[in-house]
């Protein structure tokens, strides 16, 4: 019986398996047609289900945005004596928001890169300014102020790297010492150290960062004690002796003198002490007295007379961030009449910028030339690739037609900057480019030191247009960094983008700017919303605070401001140090 049962079962299974044989259907065309129709129906069902799911995710995203806006409005009603844009960082868990799976994957890859860079710094250069990855040691390029650590604080916080942030916070509290007999760059110390500490304070609400920011700013203040108020660009952190570098002929540098306003205004708002803001804003008032009709200033300024010297006009090195801060101080002050003159000066400078725009042959790449006297120079720094993002960010302040033209120019310039990368064998950009008739672009200085400017502009253009092409370009640049710059102990620049020969330094701005902008490029727009935050030139986000005609630095504002920061930090409850 058992053998007979087994044979019967085998026969039945063979009968069922014949339906899996293609020959069975070839002899029965009607059944083949029915099978094909069933397959198509199932495919359409699954496709429609995926479409509905995507649409459902988009609706959820919109609803979450509306809820966040309502939360912010409710906070404003609770604190209507201090009209500040409220951050939603404390109420957002980025991992809970439904977004494109590709964006999630890319964002995590960038986060992994940050962990690799930070872990290497922590292991081989802890407390030093920068890491030398090839030789696996630290160097003090900025006088031993822990530049990489401070530059990385907000990046760690934004990426949710809690343990790393807390360990860095403890170092700041216990080991950060500014009493160094060192001649520091006022510009670099302001954008990296003051800016980094203030951003960490705005994000976490931890007073230790504010106290340290005040300490270093107090040491920088004597640099502004000049007849014109235009600061000297170098100062000793112990004795306060200030001077300019010898190679400028005694002049101050435009970008170095006009790129402290965001940080010093923010510091006055947070501390209630107006002296920082007054020093920094007096520079703009002085320059505005003789501001030219085209809004373009040479890179050298006499600190005794407050007048410019015959020198290069450029949106690249030594000129760049002066123009950036004219726009961003206006944004930082929430675009009120108290900061209207910044916007007016910026718009004047944009008229001058248009006079520098030229296009290559045969591909018609738009670029920003430089100028000496009345002569244009067909050269553009990669540093000037911040300009597309700046132009896009400021375009919304114009009428529809002018805004559209400027945004179009920003997109053209971003395409050129992206091609700075794509035109080399390593797909990484050189330091500057020259343009010749019939040749489009050729790399000049061929090193790459992990600069962020192009990625910065891609971030702004994606945020402002929603065009995912900018995300794809940013991803390509990130992959080129991974391929050419990643080493066992961090990331390095290239001595030559044509050969790929590596250098031995991991610039602090790679963690502060390049990786942060890449991370935000693949994150929801609500993470560090441009309606609530403004980035300094080192990519440190500072909260937007409405400026009024008077009383910005009052104790009432300071108390309400700091109270709001601490309440948000407690609500988030990440680090428990608020």
UniProtKB/TrEMBL annotation:
<keyword id="KW-0175">Coiled coil</keyword>
<dbReference type="InterPro" id="IPR036026">
    <property type="entry name" value="Seven-hairpin_glycosidases"/>
</dbReference>
<dbReference type="GO" id="GO:0005783">
    <property type="term" value="C:endoplasmic reticulum"/>
</dbReference>
<dbReference type="InterPro" id="IPR001382">
    <property type="entry name" value="Glyco_hydro_47"/>
</dbReference>
<dbReference type="Pfam" id="PF01532">
    <property type="entry name" value="Glyco_hydro_47"/>
</dbReference>
<comment type="function">
    <text>Class I alpha-mannosidase essential for early N-glycan processing. Progressively trims alpha-1,2-linked mannose residues. Produces Man(5)GlcNAc(2) from Man(8)GlcNAc(2), but only Man(6)GlcNAc(2) from Man(9)GlcNAc(2). Has difficulty acting on the terminal mannose of the b-branch. Involved in root development and cell wall biosynthesis.</text>
</comment>
<keyword id="KW-0333">Golgi apparatus</keyword>
<keyword id="KW-0325">Glycoprotein</keyword>
<comment type="pathway">
    <text>Protein modification; protein glycosylation.</text>
</comment>
<comment type="similarity">
    <text>Belongs to the glycosyl hydrolase 47 family.</text>
</comment>
<keyword id="KW-1133">Transmembrane helix</keyword>
<dbReference type="GO" id="GO:0005975">
    <property type="term" value="P:carbohydrate metabolic process"/>
</dbReference>
<dbReference type="GO" id="GO:0000139">
    <property type="term" value="C:Golgi membrane"/>
</dbReference>
<keyword id="KW-0106">Calcium</keyword>
<keyword id="KW-0326">Glycosidase</keyword>
<keyword id="KW-0472">Membrane</keyword>
<dbReference type="InterPro" id="IPR012341">
    <property type="entry name" value="6hp_glycosidase-like_sf"/>
</dbReference>
<keyword id="KW-0460">Magnesium</keyword>
<keyword id="KW-0464">Manganese</keyword>
<keyword id="KW-0735">Signal-anchor</keyword>
<keyword id="KW-1015">Disulfide bond</keyword>
<feature type="active site" description="Proton donor">
    <location>
        <position position="431"/>
    </location>
</feature>
<feature type="coiled-coil region">
    <location>
        <begin position="53"/>
        <end position="80"/>
    </location>
</feature>
<dbReference type="GO" id="GO:0005509">
    <property type="term" value="F:calcium ion binding"/>
</dbReference>
<dbReference type="GO" id="GO:0006491">
    <property type="term" value="P:N-glycan processing"/>
</dbReference>
<feature type="active site" description="Proton donor">
    <location>
        <position position="188"/>
    </location>
</feature>
<feature type="active site">
    <location>
        <position position="320"/>
    </location>
</feature>
<protein>
    <recommendedName>
        <fullName>alpha-1,2-Mannosidase</fullName>
        <ecNumber>3.2.1.-</ecNumber>
    </recommendedName>
</protein>
<feature type="disulfide bond">
    <location>
        <begin position="385"/>
        <end position="417"/>
    </location>
</feature>
<dbReference type="InterPro" id="IPR050749">
    <property type="entry name" value="Glycosyl_Hydrolase_47"/>
</dbReference>
<feature type="active site">
    <location>
        <position position="453"/>
    </location>
</feature>
<keyword id="KW-0378">Hydrolase</keyword>
<keyword id="KW-0812">Transmembrane</keyword>
<feature type="binding site">
    <location>
        <position position="537"/>
    </location>
    <ligand>
        <name>Ca(2+)</name>
    </ligand>
</feature>
<keyword id="KW-0479">Metal-binding</keyword>
<dbReference type="GO" id="GO:0004571">
    <property type="term" value="F:mannosyl-oligosaccharide 1,2-alpha-mannosidase activity"/>
</dbReference>
């Amino acid at each position: 019986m058992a053998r007979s049962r087994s044979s019967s079962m085998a026969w039945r299974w063979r009968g069922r398996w014949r339906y899996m044989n293609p020959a069975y259907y070839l002899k029965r065309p009607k059944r083949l047609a029915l099978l094909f129709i069933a397959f198509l129906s199932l495919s359409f069902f699954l496709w429609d289900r995926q479409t509905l799911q995507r649409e459902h995710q988009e609706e959820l995203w919109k609803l979450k945005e509306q809820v966040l806006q309502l939360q912010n409005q409710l906070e404003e009603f609770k604190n209507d004596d201090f009209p500040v844009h409220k951050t939603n960082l404390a109420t957002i868990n980025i991992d809970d928001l439904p977004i494109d799976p590709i964006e999630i994957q890319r964002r995590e890859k960038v986060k992994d890169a940050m962990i690799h860079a930070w872990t290497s710094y922590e292991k081989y250069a802890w407390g030093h300014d920068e890491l030398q990855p090839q030789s696996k040691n630290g160097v003090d390029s900025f006088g031993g102020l822990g530049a990489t650590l401070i530059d990385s604080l907000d990046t760690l916080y934004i990426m949710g790297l809690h343990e790393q942030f807390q360990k860095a916070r403890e170092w700041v509290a216990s080991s950060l010492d500014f009493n160094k007999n060192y001649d520091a760059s006022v510009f670099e110390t302001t954008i990296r150290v003051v800016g980094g500490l203030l951003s960490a304070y705005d994000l976490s609400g931890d007073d230790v960062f504010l106290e340290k920011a005040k300490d270093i700013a107090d040491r920088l203040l004597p640099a502004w004690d000049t007849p014109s108020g235009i600061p000297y660009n170098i100062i000793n952190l112990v004795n306060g002796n200030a001077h300019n570098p010898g190679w400028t002929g005694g002049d101050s540098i435009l970008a170095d003198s006009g790129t402290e306003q965001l940080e010093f205004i923010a510091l006055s708002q947070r501390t209630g002490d107006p002296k920082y803001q007054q020093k920094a804003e007096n520079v703009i008032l002085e320059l505005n007295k003789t501001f030219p009709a085209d809004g373009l200033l040479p890179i050298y300024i006499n600190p005794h007379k407050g007048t410019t010297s015959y020198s290069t006009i450029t949106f690249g090195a030594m000129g760049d961030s002066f123009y950036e801060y004219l726009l961003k101080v206006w944004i930082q002050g929430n675009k009120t009449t108290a900061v209207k003159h910044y916007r007016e000066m910026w718009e004047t400078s944009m008229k001058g910028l248009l006079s520098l725009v030229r296009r290559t042959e045969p591909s018609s790449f738009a670029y920003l030339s430089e100028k000496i006297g009345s002569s244009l120079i067909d050269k553009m720094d990669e540093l000037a690739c911040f300009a597309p993002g700046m132009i896009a960010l400021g375009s919304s302040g114009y009428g529809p037609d002018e805004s559209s033209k400027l945004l179009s120019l920003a997109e053209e310039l971003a395409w050129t900057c992206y091609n700075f990368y794509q035109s080399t064998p390593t797909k990484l950009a050189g330091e500057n480019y020259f343009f010749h008739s019939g040749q489009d672009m050729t790399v000049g200085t061929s090193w790459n030191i992990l600069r962020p400017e192009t990625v910065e502009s891609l971030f702004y253009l994606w945020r402002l247009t929603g065009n995912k092409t900018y995300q794809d370009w940013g991803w390509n640049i990130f992959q080129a960094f991974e391929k050419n710059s990643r080493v066992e102990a961090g990331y390095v620049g290239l001595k030559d983008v044509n050969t790929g020969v590596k250098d031995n330094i991991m610039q602090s701005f790679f963690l502060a700017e390049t990786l942060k902008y890449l991370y935000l490029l693949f994150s929801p727009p609500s993470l560090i919303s441009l309606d609530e935050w403004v980035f300094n030139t080192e990519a440190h986000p500072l909260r937007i605070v409405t400026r009024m005609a008077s009383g910005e630095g009052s104790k009432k504002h300071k108390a309400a401001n700091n109270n709001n920061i601490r309440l948000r930090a407690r609500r988030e409850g990440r680090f428990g140090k608020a």
